[in-house]
Write a structure and sequence with these properties.
The complex is a heterodimer of chains A (150) and B (132).
Chain A (H helix, E strand, L loop, with lengths): L2 H4 L5 E5 L4 H16 L3 H14 L3 E3 L2 E2 L2 E4 L6 E11 L9 E10 L6 H11 L2 H9 L3 H13 L1
Parallel strand pairs in A: 1-5, 3-6, 4-6
Antiparallel strand pairs in A: 2-3, 5-6
Helix pairs in contact in A: 2-3, 5-6
Chain B lengths: L1 H7 L7 H7 L2 E3 L5 H8 L13 H8 L9 E4 L2 E8 L5 E7 L15 H13 L2 H5 L1
Antiparallel strand pairs in B: 1-4, 2-3, 3-4
The chains are: A alpha/beta (150), B alpha+beta (132).
Chain lengths: 150, 132
């Protein structure tokens, strides 16, 4: 399974502006809640708790906030592409303009390996480019799908 | 060669390639270990360490001192020393979510620095810790 299996067009926000890190995570949590039901705080809380431990930025303008949410029955993701990059305390010092939030159900950490797989996927220049140049969420999902099949 | 350069200089700014060795994510070493265990629901972390900070846990596991590149297993993840300050305290920690990440499986392919780090970890590791 790849990132495209956890995303949906309604959970890809393009051209988001004027957000700082905390607010951005809030927006992604709202999108999870709108799409999957439940309260946005149930999605935001684990992402913010993880972020308090240290940055989830992985370099080259990408961040992957992640955590475990009790309300979920399977892993899910949401993405935001920002008009203006935001400071995510990235290890390479580059501000972040693509944020993928990944949440998995509460329980034993079987999904840790999936986080590593998503990071590897996001290291593809083609995938990063797709997030930054896409006109629609479907464009991103198409590139992710091609990349995962290849 | 770049990795060796990184080991002998402060890894303040990590490139994507360095992250393969130093872990994909960053952790604040002063944060409680219990928060890390809770965030990832980590298994097999001895209860008595849960009151420690991430740094204290790593220093304990490393036998009292830490150097850049040192790696400690913490349940289902690995913690890697990314930076040490002038007082010898751990200043930055990397989190490897894939425990094979950055570690060559065949010692023949390890760099000099990796072999040194690998040997130090094994020399310092307490048998009683392994048993838990």
């Amino acid at each position: 399974m790849g990132l495209s299996d956890f995303l949906s067009p309604s959970r890809i926000l393009l051209g988001l502006g004027g957000c700082k890190k905390r607010e951005l995570i809030g927006r992604l949590a709202e999108q999870f809640a709108k799409d999957l039901g439940g309260d946005a705080s149930a999605y935001a809380q684990p992402l913010l708790a993880r972020e308090k431990l240290g940055s989830t930025a992985i370099g080259k303008g990408i961040a992957l906030p992640h955590g475990k949410a009790e309300c979920l029955s399977g892993p899910v993701a949401a993405a935001a592409v920002l008009r203006s990059p935001v400071n995510f305390q990235a290890p390479d010092g580059i501000d972040v303009d693509v944020v993928i939030a990944f949440l998995s159900p509460d329980g034993p950490p079987q999904d840790i390996g999936r986080i590593g797989d998503i990071v590897r996927e996001l290291r593809s220049d083609e995938v990063r480019q797709a997030f930054r140049t896409a006109d629609t969420p479907e464009d991103i999902l198409a590139v992710l799908g091609r990349n995962e099949d290849g | 060669m770049r990795l060796l350069d990184r080991l002998f200089a402060s890894p303040k700014k990590l490139t994507e390639d360095d992250a393969e060795f130093f872990g994909k994510f960053t952790l604040d070493p002063k944060k409680p270990l219990s928060a890390l265990v809770e965030a990832y629901r980590l298994r097999s972390v001895p209860q008595r360490h849960l009151d420690s900070s991430i740094s204290e846990f790593m220093i304990h596991r490393l036998g009292g001192t830490a150097e850049v590149g040192d790696r400690v297993t913490c349940g289902d993840v690995d913690l890697i020393v990314r930076d040490v300050n002038t007082n010898g305290e751990i200043a930055e920690v990397g989190l490897a979510v894939d425990q094979a990440e950055g570690q060559a499986q065949i010692p023949l392919f390890l760099s000099g620095a990796e072999i040194w780090s690998w040997l130090k970890q094994r020399i310092r590791r307490k048998p009683s810790e392994d048993a838990q």
